From TrEMBL:
Protein name, entry field: NAD(P)-binding domain-containing protein
Organism annotation: Powellomyces hirtus
Location of the NAD(P)-binding domain: 12-224
Length: 270
């Protein structure tokens, strides 16, 4: 990261991973603008975050269901972030939230040269084909999940693909510094609080769990780098601590988009 204080727009700021990320970013002295659904959430969110050390926290209120290209652009022009984090999600209305709204903010952000990074919190299952490194049991598990929750899987897959397509467009237009990052956890574990500490980043099995604290730490570690791009599937139960796992995945150019039709994805945004 540069010496300039990062200015981060967190969309879906009241979500569990978003709150954990916000705490980590504030502790680093970053300026976070947390986008929430209702003004009443700001007080409870401020209390839950506790001491912010040298960071600065602001709030904006947005109804993602009413998101348009124009409203997304207006918010970005108001906030002027250099980093965007998409962490909003909906079990009941994934097409509107995980799909349409996510794509609108991705397009608005990637169209602004002042936005240098866009990171989404997605899911490992957001893909069209079974990953080539999975076992047969992994592939069957993934297929069962995406057929059980087809609207969620389709919305997240579509949004992730558009994020990568916008990143490729920026690269084609000569911006080699822009970073499009999709953090794609397996199912969140329900046992215990705090970080497990040992994770897998890059290519993971489909089966398994990961703690939200570790997902947040991985996401912030990726944002701290200038060379992280692509799909990063994440899971618990690894052998490396977060920083080492992130470093290994990035430096070895691991990208969990492998097995997908990258040419088709790139053509989504011309």
């Amino acid at each position: 990261m540069s010496t300039t204080v990062p200015r981060v727009l967190v969309l879906g700021g009241n979500g569990n991973v978003a709150k954990l990320m916000t705490r980590l970013m504030l502790a680093k002295g970053w300026h976070v603008i947390s986008v929430i659904r209702a003004p009443s959430q700001s007080a409870s969110l401020s209390i839950s975050l506790g001491s912010t050390n040298s960071g600065h926290l602001d709030f904006r209120t947005v109804d993602f269901l009413s998101t348009t290209s124009s409203s997304a652009k207006d918010l970005l022009q108001d906030v002027r972030p250099d980093i965007i984090v998409w962490a909003a999600a909906s079990m009941s209305q994934p097409r509107q939230i995980d799909g349409a709204a996510a794509k609108a903010y991705t397009a608005a952000g990637a169209s602004l040269p002042t936005v240098k990074k866009i990171l989404s919190i997605s899911a490992y299952s957001a893909r069209r084909k079974a990953a080539p490194w999975w076992s047969k049991a992994d592939a069957e598990y993934w297929k069962h999940e995406v057929t059980s929750y087809p609207d969620i899987a389709n919305a997240k897959t579509d949004a992730d693909e558009h994020l990568i397509a916008w990143g490729n467009k920026r690269a084609r237009e000569g911006d080699a510094t822009f970073q499009a990052i999709a953090v794609r956890p397996v199912w969140y574990g329900s046992g215990g609080n705090g970080s497990e500490g040992k994770v897998v980043v890059g290519k993971t099995p489909a089966r398994g769990t990961v703690r939200r604290e570790d997902v947040a730490s991985i996401a912030v570690a990726l944002l701290e780098r200038s060379d992280a791009r692509g799909y990063f599937d994440v899971a618990g139960g690894g052998t490396l601590a977060v920083e080492k796992a992130v470093q290994k995945a990035v430096e070895e150019n691991v990208d969990a988009i492998e097995g997908e039709d990258v040419e088709r994805i790139s053509a989504l945004v011309s």
